[in-house]
Amino acid sequence: MARLTPRHLGSIIPEELAGMVDRERGLIDVLRPLFPDGLRTGDLQPSLRGKTLVMVCRTRALATEIRFQAREIRSTAEAAGFPVDEVLTRLTNQRPAVFDSPKEMPKRHIPDTGRERLAEAAETMDDPRLAGALHRLANAAKEQ
After folding, report:
1. Measured on CA atoms in the order 127, 128, 131, 136, is the torsion positive or negative?
2. How far are the Cα atoms of 22, 56, 109, 136 from residue 83, in angstroms, in the given order?
3. Residues contacting residue 73 through CB under 8 Å, at least 6 positions apart
4. pTM, full prediction
5. I need a labelling partner for 23 at 20 to 30 A (CA). Which of 39, 45, 104, 134 fits?
6. Tens digit of each residue's pLDDT (9 = 90 or more) over 13-40
7. Distance (Å, rounded) from C-alpha 21 to C-alpha 13?
8. How far is 28 from 47, CA to CA, in rounded Å?
């Protein structure tokens, strides 16, 4: 039986997709001072498509605010290195996924071999945050 070894996450995610995710994350950081509540609650999801900034809103009030602030949004994004020719607003009724608190989640048992593999995988990770998450998961399984 072949032994499964974890691969580096960067080898699985195409470089182009990883770059797009980094760019979107940078755009959110740039827009956070203008719309802190909308970005925090998930009521606003910006996305850059070429030179068009699409602002997906979950409330009409936020969509109206974005239309009025389009010039400021464009200049703020351009100053941060995101060239924007047009700001479009889109309204959606979909809500972001709401996750239950850990108190409400069912307890799951992770076998000893699974905990060992999590710990081994954590040791091979280049990303310290990912390694820490795997260690926490392995240790949390011990405590249950």
Report:
1. negative
2. 16, 18, 49, 40
3. 31, 34, 53, 55, 66, 84, 87
4. 0.54
5. 134
6. 666 666 666 778 888 888 989 988 888 8
7. 11
8. 9
Q: Which helix (H) or strand (E) holds 24?
A: helix 15-31
Average of per-residue pLDDT across 96-119: 65
The 3 state secondary structure assigned to 73-133 is HHHHHHHCCCCCCEEEEEECCCCCCCCCCCCCCCCCCCCHHHHHHHHHHHHHCCCHHHHHH
Amino acid at residue number 26: G
Residue 14's alpha-carbon distances to 5, 11, 20, 80, 126, in angstroms, are 19, 7, 10, 25, 17
40-90 pLDDT tens trace = 888 888 888 888 999 999 989 999 999 999 999 999 999 988 889 999 999
As a whole number of angstroms, the distance between CA 26 and CA 142 comes to: 37
DSSP track, 38-68: HHHHTSEEEEEETTEEEEEESSHHHHHHHHH
What CA–CA distances, in Å, run from 128 to 8, 23, 133?
12, 21, 9
| CA-closest candidate to residue 59, choices 89, 18, 21 | 89
